[in-house]
Amino acid sequence: MNVRPIVASDADAVASIVVEDSEALTGRPSRLGPNDVRDWWSRADLARDSWLFLDDGEPVAAGWLHPYGDKAAFAGVVAQRAKGRGYGSAIVERAEDTARARGLARMHTWVPPEDAAAISLFRERGYDEVRRFYEMAIELAATPPEPVVPEGFALDAFHEEDARAFHDTLEDAFRDHWEWHG
Asked: pTM to 2 decimals?
């Protein structure tokens, strides 16, 4: 098993693994791409807290961790062609070892509900399901009608001068969210 830290230029390759996995699990086209992956990595120290697993020089799995407070969040993905070969376990072990070495008290991760193997892996390691998030989507047969905007409201593009009010509203909306750290 050849492993190295993830570098920014790996985003396309990791995004391809994510998209392939998402589509195989859900049976729907994925909306994820390299920008999403880069966003996920934005809080991680990739040189220190990431792992790209290579098979014959090709990426087959990736994992990364970012500490916050006394906790860590970590994520990983394994290519469809590499599932069942221990990469998922290796990602979890590296993440747990990293968190333990830093004295972090708790780990958080997320798993698509369709990924029975990952759910089983985490349950076997003592992880508990805490919460679920759902994505709702619809395929429209036609262009929807223009929305009716209630009196006193307006639809408008984002303006830089509204940034602070937008941020404050978003923070307030999620203040009661699990592990909010705004």
From this structure: 0.80
